[in-house]
Write a structure and sequence with these properties.
single chain, alpha+beta, 224 residues
């Protein structure tokens, strides 16, 4: 039986996307899945679907601050939330960062996982402005990219090819029914199954016939 294709549509402005990303990275070595990272633009999805940032409702914002802290501890992901974070998110566009990540996906996809992770680290652990070019270059360096490649990617972010690729991926997520992120699409039994949120991965496992071992599963020892 072939591996189940599982696509993760994500934006680094979303802390819940980071949680889902790390858990799926752990499970790609345990479940019989072909995990594919699909960098997309959350702002485009929100606009197309008429969705609004959840923290715009003050009481929901208060709840999310507590919820993300609990989830980060449970998932063992270093998200650090401060009381001003949601206002910070509303004031920073992730479009440039997602174009940068799209550029690496198009040219050097082996760096896609570490580069995405470093963008989340920079934004959600270190609370830096990932829309600034100097911070993008710092992220690239931390992810192991050469200065030459990092600069090339920065130049690519303004190219029609990168812009169109990000737009197409975002539109693809919307066609699957995405209205926020993370959006996980499992291709199983000939049809796509959409799961929204980092807390639906247990259900994902159930649908595709895989065992859920918690958010931090231990890798089984190889049989002798």
């Amino acid at each position: 039986m072939g591996r189940t294709v599982v696509e993760l549509f994500y934006d680094v402005v979303s802390p819940y996307s980071w949680l889902g990303f790390e858990v799926l990275c752990r499970y790609q070595h345990i479940w019989n899945i072909d995990l594919r990272f699909r960098p997309a633009f959350l702002g485009g999805i929100m606009q197309a679907t008429g969705n609004k940032p959840p923290a715009m409702l003050p009481k929901r914002g208060e709840y999310l601050s507590k919820d993300i802290k609990r989830m980060a501890k449970y998932y063992q992901v270093p998200v650090r939330i401060s009381k001003d974070d949601f206002q910070r998110v509303l004031g920073i566009s992730s479009l440039g960062a997602m174009r940068y990540i799209t550029a690496i996906d198009m040219t050097q996809p082996q760096y896609l996982e570490p580069l995405s992770r470093e963008f989340w680290m920079r934004f959600w652990s270190q609370h830096e402005d990932i829309s600034q070019p100097e911070n993008m270059l710092a992220v690239a360096k931390q992810a192991g990219l050469s200065p030459e490649l990092a600069q090339k990617l920065l130049e690519m972010t303004s190219s029609p090819a990168v812009k169109n690729r990000l737009k197409e991926t975002t539109e693809e997520a919307i066609k699957y029914g995405a209205f926020g992120m993370p959006a996980v699409v499992a291709h199983f039994n000939g049809e796509p199954h959409l799961f929204f949120g980092s807390d639906r991965l247990e259900l994902l496992g159930s649908v595709i016939g895989e065992k859920w071992l918690g958010p931090v599963p231990s890798v089984p020892s190889p049989k002798m």
